[in-house]
Structures are given as C-alpha cells and as structure tokens.
Specification:
The protein is an alpha+beta fold. The protein has two domains: about 90 residues, no CATH class; about 70 residues. Helices cover about 20% and strands about 35% of the residues. It has three helices and nine strands. The strands form two sheets. Strands 1, 6, 7, 8 and 9 form a five-stranded antiparallel sheet that branches. A four-stranded antiparallel sheet has the order 3-4-2-5, covered by helices on one side. Strand 3 and strand 4 form a beta hairpin. The chain is globular.
Length: about 170
C-alpha cells in the first residue's frame, strides 16, 4: 500500500511547457471515459507523449471532466473532429504523487498541496486556462506488480508570490 512520510505528501514544483492538445471538452465522466476515450484510442497516431511517456491530463469542475491529450506537431483541427484543439498555456505547478483511484487519498494529497502553498513562496495561479490537473502514472508490467497500485500525480497551478523573486 502507498505510504506517506509522516502523513505528509512531498511536494515538488515543475514547469510544464505550453502544448497543443485535443480536448474532450467539459463533459460527463461517462462520455469522457466512453466516447472520447474510444476516439483517442482510434487516433493514437496524432498523440504525443509528455510526462513519463503519457500524453494526458484530466481536469474536473462542477461534476464535469475534461481530458486533454497532447498532439504532435502539424495536427490540425480537421484531424481531431468532432473534438477541438486547444492551446494549453503550461506554467508552474505544485505536484504530489498519490494512488490512482483512491479518492480519499487524492483529496488528502490535494489538501496537502494547498497547505504547502500557503507556507511557501508560491501562491495559487487562478488565471483562465489554469486548472488543477491529474496525470495518471500508470506503470506497466513488473513495475505495477511491484508497487501493487497505479500512481497518479496531482498538478495545482501556482506562481511565484510577488516580491519573492522574478519568475
């Protein structure tokens, strides 16, 4: 089972470069994991790997989910029909690793990141286009068997507090 160190989730800060993605758009979990998932599986030739070899981030708000899949250079709006291309702004994110599918542990990790932000040189970045994202680090084969669970990483958008340092 996944163990935290002294109950805390270690936080790291990463910079994600801007990227183009095909998006499910905000939709019900059933449609995102059904229709959109089936579409992207049939169009893997358009998708480009990002973090840890996976191309995707999942966001959610008000009971809706949005799944972003990074696309290769040269992919056009016509290539991704009936879905849309979006320009993700990237930026700084405070992150922690947790167990994929364990909602209670995920919520604790998210709360831990927010608490960490409050005592750090960072502040939440709530500009449009910046949302908390989850990236599933699902290991394969022997690695997953050795861990005994799938990993997920939570990304909370942050920026350096004014007066701390120039970004």
């Amino acid at each position: 089972m996944y163990e935290t160190v002294n109950g805390a989730f270690p936080v790291r800060v990463v910079r994600i470069a801007p990227f183009r993605a095909v998006t499910s758009g905000p939709d019900t979990p059933e449609r995102v994991f059904g229709d959109f998932n089936a579409w992207q599986e049939a169009h893997m030739h358009l998708i480009r790997p990002m973090l840890c070899g996976a191309p995707d981030f999942l966001c959610g708000e008000d009971g809706k989910l949005e799944w972003l899949w990074a696309v290769k250079e040269g992919v056009t709006a016509a290539d991704v029909q009936p879905y849309q291309l979006v320009e993700h702004p990237g930026g700084l994110y405070a992150c922690a690793v947790t167990v994929d599918g364990d909602d209670a542990l995920m919520a604790r990790a998210h709360a831990g990141i927010l608490q960490w932000i409050g005592g750090s040189g960072f502040e939440p970045d709530e500009r449009p286009g910046r949302a908390t994202m989850v990236h599933m680090l699902t290991p394969e084969g022997a690695l997953r068997a050795a861990l005994g669970y799938d990993q997920a990483e939570i990304f909370v958008p942050v920026r350096v507090k004014k007066g701390v340092a120039d970004e």
